[in-house]
Amino acid sequence: DVLGGWYDPDGDPMYLTRASVAAPDAVSWKPEGRVVYTDAGAGGDTRTVALQVSDGREEGSGELVVTVRRAGDVPLVAEGFVVQASLGREITVEPLTHARGG
Predict the structure, then answer these.
(1) Strand partners, 38
(2) What predicted TM-score, i.e. pTM, was given to this entire model?
(3) Which among 12, 21, 26, 69 could bridge 73 via Cys, Cβ 3.0 to 4.6 Å?
(4) How many CA atoms within 13 Å lie on the side-chain side of 12?
(5) Burial class of 16 by CB neighbour count within 10 A (0 to 12, 13 to 18, 19+)
(6) How far is CA 25 from CA 48, 49, 57, 66, 74, in A?
(7) What DSSP string describes the chain?
(8) Alpha-carbon distance 85 to 94, whole Å?
(9) Rounded to an integer, what distance in angstroms lies between the CA atom of residue 27 and that of residue 56?
(10) What is the pLDDT of residues 2-44, one digit of tens each?
(11) How far is CA 18 from its chain centroid?
(12) CA torsion 40→42→45→70, rounded to 10°?
């Protein structure tokens, strides 16, 4: 979520209006702030994603710096998550949905 650092003094919600990168790399994005970057090269460097945000009246711009690593050289990161359970009831936990990299 790239909107976490943006603040509107009037309290209006912020949304992402554009994300772009230099070709041949690609980026997809959603207004709620999710950005997915796809590297077309061999990795091993940093790339910059240009961001445009708005509160519906005013616009601002910023950057997202992405560190690109070669496949297999990305550290495995597991995010914490909460599971609600009741005594005596079986539950299924899917921890891999909270892991990335590797």
Answers:
(1) 26
(2) 0.71
(3) 69
(4) 11
(5) buried
(6) 10, 10, 30, 12, 19
(7) -TTTT---TT-PPPEEEEEE--TT-EEEE-TTS-EEEE--S---EEEEEEEEEESSS-EEEEEEEEEE--TT-SPPEE--------TT------GGGGEE--
(8) 14
(9) 23
(10) 998 888 989 999 999 999 999 899 999 999 999 999 998 866 6
(11) 14
(12) 110
Distance CA 44, CA 61 (A): 26
Rounded Cα distance, 35 and 18, in Å: 10
Place of tokens 């309290």: 11
Nearest 5°: phi and psi at 96? -70, -20
